[in-house]
Design a protein that fits this description.
six-stranded parallel beta sheet; 27 strands
Length: 1167
C-alpha cells in the first residue's frame, strides 16, 4: 500500500440497555396499535423500556420509522431515547433505514413551522432565545423609571405602559425582566393573550397584570417590527412556539390532515412533565382515536417551574377518546424491576403524602429481588457527614464489590453542597465525576474564570479587588497566596516611592488594567498578573473587531491562555504514569479532562447562541449563561471518565438508576426549598387560577396555596431521588442543634421522617461485624443495628415501633452519629496503634492489634512498624551536640532561652522558630533608626523620615494596623531622644560586633554577639546598653541582678572583647532601656557591675559556662515556664499536652481527677 493507511468508520458499540422482562402488561402495551392508551407506572416499572420495545415492534411490522413520532420532555432524554431505539432496531433487524422521529415538543413544533414556511416559499422561522427575549424586554423597560439629574433628585420619564408606582424602582433590574418574561411565558403556554390577562388582573384587583398586558402588546409589536425590518422571518419564543404550531394546524385544515395522515403512531414519554400548550398540540395531531400511547408517573413531575402540570395525567383519558367517543384505556404497571421490598416499603411511606391517584403506587417487587436497605443518618457537622459518605462508598466498593460507576450521590443544591463533598471524597480516594451537563454552565470551575474575565474586559467597572484576586488564583493566572502577597508588596513599594498611598487592592486592579508597572516587579511574582492583564487586553481587542461574536471573543481568550497545551500535557503525562508515586499525575489529568469537557460545552453554547442570535453582543451571551439556574442541554461530546462515583442534582438524576444512591445534605430549608419564586408578578398565581385552584381566595390563602404547591413539588423531587436506588439508599443530614448551636442551626428535613423509621443508631463502626478493628462491636449496644431494609426499628421486645404504637406515621428519633473510621490504611494503622498502646484494653485485644500491625508492617504499610512511631525509635546518636574539646558558640541573646527551656532552644535553632511578627519588624526598624542617634542632638525629623520611608517593607497582619504601628514607632523614637538627653555617659560605639574566647578545661567557649550601644561612664568603665522595643520585655529587680543577657555582656567586657576600641576591660555594669513599654518615658534598668562582687564577676562567667554546657549537651529538657503559652514548638513538647503523644502512650484520667496545671507538671526530655 506504500505506507497508505486505510480507515473504516464503524458505529460506536451501543451501551447495554436494561434487561427485558416477560411482563404481561408490558406485552399488552407493546402490542397496542389502535386508539389512545395511558400507561401509568411507578419508578422502575419499565415505562421507557416498554416504549422502546413498542417502537421496535412497529418497525418490525413494516412501519416506516419516519411515521412514528416519539415525544420526550428534554433534549437530553430525547437523545438518549433515540440511541436506545436505534440500537434495538439494529439488534432486531440488523439495519436502520431511517432515523426514528424522537423529538421534544418544541423541536417538533419548530419543525412544523419550518416545513410550512418552506412550502409557502417564506423564510424559515427562527427561535427567539432567552437572552434575546431578555434583551428586548430590558430595552423596553429601560425607557421607564427615574432619570437621575442630581443625587437624590429625579424626573419621571413618560410611562406608556402605566406600571404601578410600587414597581417602578425595580423596572430596570435584571430580576424584574426575568420575572416579567416568566409571567409572559406562563400566559403564552396557556393561551392567555393581553385582553384575557388584563381581565384576570382587574378581576383579582392586581394592577400589575393589566400593565403586563399592555407591555405584552408593545412587546409583540416590537417583535413584528424586528421581523419585518431585519430578516423577514418570524421569531418565536419557546413559550409561544408550541402555541404557534397549534394555531398553524388549526388555521390550515389541509396541513392538519396531512400531518395526521403522515403519523401512524405517536408515543409520549413523561407525560406528567408536559404543559397545557403541548397537550393541545398533541391532541391536534393524535386526537380523534389515533394510535397514541402516553407513559406517565404523576409522582415524578418535577418541572412545575417550567409550566409542567401533573393534573394533565388525570385528565388524559377524558381528553383523548377513542373513535367511538369512549374514554381512553389506562394500563398500570405494578411490577418494580429496580427495587426490592425493603426499598419499596420505604418509598411507599414517602409516596403516601403525595397528592393524586394512588393505584400506580402499589408496586410489587419481582419474586427473587434482594430486599434492599435504607439507612438514615444525621451528624453534627457537614464534615462528619462527608466522612460518613466517603466511608460508605469505599465500604460498598471494597467489601461488597460495587463498581464505582454504579454509585451516585444526589444533591439538592450543587452550589452549596458540591465542593466540600467532592473534596472529602477525593481525600480518601473515592473517584468522582461531575458531568458538564449536571451543573449550570457558569458554575463549572473551568468556565467561571473565563466568564468573569470576559465580564471584566467588556465592563471595566466590574474589575474590582475581589474579581482581580479571583482571576489571579484561577487557572488563567495561576497565582498562589504567596505570589499574591509578594505582588501586593511590590506594587505598594512602587506606589510609595512615587507618593501614592492607595491600598494594595486598588493598585492590583490598576495593574491588571495597565500592566506597565509590573515590568519593575520580580518576574515570578508579576507573571500571574501579567498573564491576566494580557488576557483582558486580548478579550477587549477581539470584542472591538466589527461584527465580532461571543464565539470569536472566547476563541481569542482561549488561544491566548495557553490552557489547551497545559491541560493536554497533563493528560499526556498521565498516560505514562504508573505506581502510587504517580497518583498525583493521574488526579491532575482527571481534573484537566473534566475542565476540557466543560470548555467544550461552553464553546458549544456560544456556537448555538451565535447561530440563533448572530447580531447579539458578547455581553448578552454572558447574561444568558450567568442567568442559568439549571444545567442546560448540550450536545457537546465529553470524555469517558471511567469508573467513578457520579455527583449530580436530583433533577439531573431523573430517568437514571444506580445500585447505591446517597442523598446528601437533606436539610430543612434546602430540601424542601420553600422560597417563593416569581412571586412579584404572580406567575404561579396565574397558573393556579387557570387550573381552577384558589379562585376567590385571599392573599394569605393564596400564599399558603403557593407554599403547599411548592412543598408538593419538592416532595416529588425527593421521591424521584429516593427511587433511583436499586440495592441501597443512604440518606444523611446535619443536626447542628445537637451540640447547642443557637445561630444558623441546621435541622434534618421533614422528608427523613416521612421516608420511614428505618433509623439506625450508628457508632464509630459501619454496622458490620469485624470491621472496626480488633473486637469491633457490631451489636445493638454499639449501634450496629439490623441495617435492614424498609422495616421499622424494633423496640426492646422485638416489635416494630409502628405496630407497637398502632400509629403508622409515628415520628422516630434521629440519633446524631459520629463518622466511622475511614476505610484507609492510615486510619486502620491509627486504630490498631491506639488499641495496642491502650493500658485499659484486654490482653487479647492488644495482642490481636499487634498481630495485625505486624502483618501490615511486613507488607510495607507506612506507620505500622514501631520503628516509625514517634518516641519509640532508638537514638540514632547518643553523643553530645558538641564534642568535648570543640568550641561552643554562645550568644548573649540566646542564653536566656537556653537556660529557661533547652528543648525549645534546640528546636527553634533547627527550624522551629516562629516567623517574625509585625511587632518584631517595627522593633528592628527602631533599632536601625537608633544607629543614627548618637546623642540628644540627633534630628528628630530625619529619624522619623527614616522610619516612615522604610515602614512599608514590614509585613503587617492587616492593612488597618499600619497607622497604629507607625504611631508606636514614632513614640519609641521620641522616648529614645528623651533618654539620650538625660544620659550622663559618653558614647563609644553603636551596633558593635564582638567575639571573645573564654578558656575552659573541658571545652572552650566562643562568646559572640553585638551590642546596641557601648558607653563609658564617669569612672572610665564600659557600660553595655541593650535597647528593648517589646511591649512586655521589662524584668523584675530579682531577675535583673543575674539577667543572662546582661551578664554575658559583662563577661565579654571582662574578657577584653572591646580591646580593639582602646577601652579597658573593667565593666561598669549593663542596662536595659525599655522603649516599647507603656510608660511615658524610657525606663532604664541597670545591672550592677559584675566585678563589684568578691568573686570578680564569677557569677557571670559561671552562667556563660553553664549555658555552654546546656547547648553542647546530649539531652535537652522541656521545662514548664511562663513563656509556654507563646512557645512556637508546643506540638513537639512532651509536657505541653499538644505534644505529649511524642514520647508517652495515651493515658486515661479518672473523671474526678482534674488535670494538672502546666506549672505542676514534670519535665520531659528529648535526646
Amino acid at each position: 500500500m506504500g505506507g497508505v493507511q486505510a480507515y473504516r468508520l464503524v458505529r460506536r458499540p451501543a451501551e447495554a440497555g436494561p434487561a427485558r422482562h416477560d411482563d404481561p402488561v408490558q406485552r399488552e402495551v407493546v402490542g397496542h396499535t389502535d386508539g389512545p392508551l395511558l400507561v401509568l407506572g411507578g419508578p422502575g416499572t419499565g415505562k421507557t423500556s416498554t416504549l422502546v420495545e413498542a417502537v421496535v415492534a412497529r418497525v418490525a411490522e413494516g412501519v416506516d420509522p419516519e411515521r412514528i413520532l416519539v415525544l420526550a420532555f428534554s433534549r437530553r432524554s430525547a437523545t438518549a431515547l433515540r440511541h436506545r431505539i436505534e440500537a434495538r432496531i439494529a439488534e432486531a433487524t440488523n439495519r436502520v433505514l431511517h432515523e426514528p422521529l424522537v423529538r421534544t415538543f418544541p423541536a417538533y413544533a419548530f419543525g412544523l413551522l419550518r416545513r410550512s414556511a418552506a412550502e409557502r416559499g417564506e423564510p424559515s422561522p427562527r427561535l427567539l432565545t432567552g437572552p434575546e427575549q431578555d434583551l428586548i424586554i430590558r430595552e423596553l423597560l429601560g425607557v421607564v423609571g427615574v432619570e437621575e439629574t442630581e443625587p437624590g433628585d429625579g424626573d419621571e420619564i413618560d410611562d406608556p405602559v402605566g406600571w404601578p408606582a410600587e414597581l417602578r424602582p425595580a423596572l430596570r433590574t435584571r430580576a424584574f425582566a426575568e420575572q416579567l418574561r416568566d409571567l409572559l411565558m406562563r400566559a403564552a403556554e396557556r393561551g392567555i393573550g393581553p385582553v384575557e390577562l388584563a381581565r384576570l388582573g382587574e378581576k383579582l384587583g392586581r394592577a400589575d397584570w393589566p400593565a403586563a398586558a399592555r407591555f405584552l402588546r408593545q412587546y409583540v409589536a416590537v417583535l413584528a417590527l424586528r421581523d419585518v425590518t431585519t430578516r423577514g422571518s418570524v421569531a418565536y419564543d419557546p413559550a409561544e412556539l408550541v402555541r404557534a404550531a397549534s394555531g398553524l394546524l388549526t388555521d390550515d385544515p389541509d396541513l392538519l390532515d396531512a400531518e395526521r395522515a403522515r403519523l401512524a403512531h405517536v408515543y409520549v414519554d413523561e407525560l406528567a412533565d408536559t404543559d397545557p400548550a403541548q397537550v393541545d398540540l398533541l391532541h391536534l395531531v393524535s386526537g380523534g382515536g389515533k394510535s397514541l400511547v402516553a407513559f406517565a408517573d404523576p409522582d415524578s413531575s418535577t418541572y412545575a417551574f417550567r409550566g409542567a402540570d401533573p393534573e394533565i395525567v388525570h385528565h388524559f383519558a377524558h381528553r383523548f377518546r377513542t373513535v367511538s367517543g369512549a374514554v381512553a384505556r389506562t394500563l398500570v404497571l405494578h411490577t418494580s424491576y429496580r427495587a426490592g421490598p425493603g426499598l419499596l416499603d420505604a418509598t411507599r411511606r414517602l409516596a403516601r403524602r403525595l397528592r393524586g391517584p394512588v393505584a400506580h403506587r402499589d408496586l410489587r417487587p419481582v419474586p427473587d429481588a434482594e430486599p434492599g436497605t435504607v439507612e438514615i443518618r444525621t451528624f453534627r457537622s457537614g464534615t462528619s457527614e462527608a466522612a460518613y459518605l466517603a466511608h460508605a462508598l469505599r465500604s460498598a466498593h471494597l467489601l461488597d464489590g460495587v463498581p464505582w460507576s454504579r454509585m451516585a450521590v444526589l444533591l439538592r443544591s450543587t452550589t452549596l453542597q458540591l465542593p466540600p463533598l467532592q473534596r472529602a471524597l477525593h481525600t480518601v480516594g473515592v473517584p468522582t465525576v461531575v458531568h458538564a451537563e449536571d451543573l449550570p454552565l457558569h458554575l463549572q470551575p473551568a468556565v467561571a474564570p473565563f466568564l468573569l474575565l470576559l465580564r471584566c474586559a467588556l465592563e471595566p467597572d466590574r474589575l474590582d479587588e475581589e474579581a482581580a484576586v479571583t482571576l489571579l488564583h484561577s487557572p488563567l493566572g495561576g497565582a498562589d497566596p504567596l505570589a499574591e502577597r509578594r505582588l501586593r508588596q511590590g506594587l505598594r513599594a512602587l506606589a510609595l516611592a512615587g507618593g501614592d498611598r492607595r491600598p494594595s487592592g486598588d493598585l492590583l486592579v490598576e495593574a491588571l488594567r495597565d500592566p506597565r508597572d509590573l515590568l519593575t516587579i520580580e518576574r515570578r511574582w508579576a507573571a500571574p498578573a501579567q498573564a491576566v492583564a494580557n488576557l483582558l487586553a486580548a478579550a477587549r481587542e477581539a470584542a472591538a473587531v466589527p461584527a465580532a461574536t461571543a464565539e470569536d471573543v472566547l476563541w481569542a481568550v482561549w488561544r491566548a491562555s495557553g490552557l489547551a497545551e497545559r491541560w493536554s500535557g497533563a493528560l499526556a503525562r498521565a498516560r505514562t504514569a504508573a505506581g502510587a508515586q504517580d497518583s498525583g499525575l493521574r488526579w491532575r489529568a482527571a481534573a484537566a479532562d473534566r475542565d476540557l469537557d466543560a470548555i467544550v460545552v461552553l464553546f458549544d453554547a456560544a456556537a448555538r447562541f451565535v447561530d440563533r442570535l448572530p447580531g447579539a453582543r458578547t455581553e448578552v451571551f454572558l447574561d444568558h449563561v450567568l442567568g442559568q439556574q439549571l444545567p442546560a442541554d448540550t450536545l457537546a461530546p465529553s470524555a469517558d471518565r471511567g469508573e467513578a462515583v457520579r455527583l449530580l442534582t436530583a433533577h439531573a438524576a431523573k430517568g437514571l438508576e444506580w445500585d447505591l444512591v446517597a442523598l446528601a445534605g437533606v436539610q430543612e430549608g434546602i430540601w424542601p426549598d420553600l422560597r417563593l419564586r416569581g412571586s412579584l408578578l404572580g406567575s404561579e398565581r396565574l397558573v393556579d387560577l387557570l387550573a381552577g385552584r384558589g379562585e376567590g381566595a385571599g392573599v394569605a390563602a393564596t400564599l399558603v396555596g403557593q407554599s403547599s404547591a411548592m412543598l408538593d413539588e419538592e416532595r416529588r423531587l425527593f421521591y424521584v431521588a429516593a427511587t433511583r436506588a436499586r440495592r441501597r439508599l443512604l440518606v444523611s443530614a446535619v443536626a447542628s442543634a445537637a451540640v447547642g448551636v443557637a445561630d444558623h442551626e441546621e435541622q434534618p428535613s421533614r422528608f427523613l421522617y416521612e421516608l420511614g423509621p428505618t433509623v439506625e443508631r450508628p457508632d464509630d463502626g459501619d454496622g458490620r461485624t469485624g470491621q472496626g478493628g480488633p473486637e469491633s462491636g457490631g451489636g445493638p449496644e454499639n449501634g450496629g443495628g439490623p441495617g435492614g431494609g424498609g422495616g421499622a426499628t424494633p423496640d426492646p421486645d422485638g416489635v416494630p415501633a409502628e405496630e407497637a404504637d398502632g400509629v403508622a406515621d409515628d415520628v422516630p428519633t434521629l440519633p446524631v452519629a459520629r463518622p466511622p473510621r475511614a476505610l484507609t490504611l492510615s486510619a486502620l494503622v491509627a486504630e490498631l496503634r491506639t488499641a495496642v498502646t491502650d493500658p485499659e484494653a484486654s490482653p487479647a485485644r492488644r495482642r490481636a492489634a499487634a498481630e495485625e500491625l505486624a502483618r501490615l508492617a511486613v507488607a510495607g504499610v507506612p506507620g505500622a512498624h514501631p520503628d516509625d512511631w514517634w518516641g519509640l525509635r532508638p537514638l540514632s546518636d547518643d553523643r553530645p551536640l558538641v564534642d568535648e574539646g570543640e568550641p561552643v558558640r554562645v550568644t548573649p541573646s540566646g542564653m536566656e532561652s537556653a537556660l529557661r527551656c533547652s528543648l525549645r532552644w534546640l528546636l527553634e535553632r533547627h527550624g522551629g522558630k516562629a516567623p517574625a511578627s509585625s511587632a518584631q519588624g517595627v522593633g528592628n526598624l527602631v533599632h536601625a533608626a537608633a544607629m543614627l542617634a548618637e546623642d540628644a542632638s540627633a534630628d528628630r525629623g530625619k529619624l522619623l523620615e527614616y522610619v516612615t520611608a522604610r515602614f512599608d517593607v514590614i509585613e503587617l497582619a492587616a492593612r488597618w494596623m499600619a497607622g497604629t504601628e507607625r504611631a508606636r514607632a514614632e513614640v519609641m523614637v521620641d522616648k529614645l531622644l528623651r533618654w539620650l538627653a538625660g544620659n550622663p555617659r559618653r558614647l563609644l560605639a553603636i551596633e558593635h560586633e564582638f567575639a571573645v574566647r573564654l578558656d575552659d578545661p573541658r571545652r572552650p567557649i566562643e562568646l559572640t554577639g553585638r551590642v546596641d550601644r557601648l558607653e563609658v561612664d564617669a569612672e572610665g568603665r564600659l557600660v553595655v546598653i541593650d535597647l528593648k522595643t517589646g511591649k512586655s520585655t521589662a524584668v523584675t529587680a530579682s531577675e535583673l541582678a543575674e539577667h543572662p543577657q546582661l551578664g554575658a555582656y559583662q563577661a565579654a567586657v571582662e574578657a577584653g572583647a572591646f580591646a580593639d576600641l582602646g577601652a579597658g576591660s573593667e565593666s561598669g555594669g549593663a542596662a536595659l532601656v525599655q522603649l516599647g513599654t507603656s510608660t511615658q518615658d524610657a525606663r532604664e534598668q541597670v545591672q550592677p557591675p559584675a566585678g563589684a562582687a568578691e568573686d570578680a564577676g564569677g557569677w557571670a562567667r559561671a552562667m556563660v559556662r553553664r549555658t555552654a554546657d546546656t547547648m553542647a549537651a546530649a539531652t535537652f529538657s522541656a521545662v514548664a515556664n511562663s513563656k509556654c503559652r507563646v512557645c512556637p514548638v508546643r506540638s513537639s513538647c512532651p509536657i505541653s499536652g499538644q505534644g505529649r503523644q511524642v514520647v508517652e502512650p495515651p493515658t486515661r484520667r479518672r473523671p474526678d481527677s482534674p488535670p494538672k496545671p502546666p506549672g505542676q507538671r514534670g519535665g520531659g526530655g528529648a535526646r
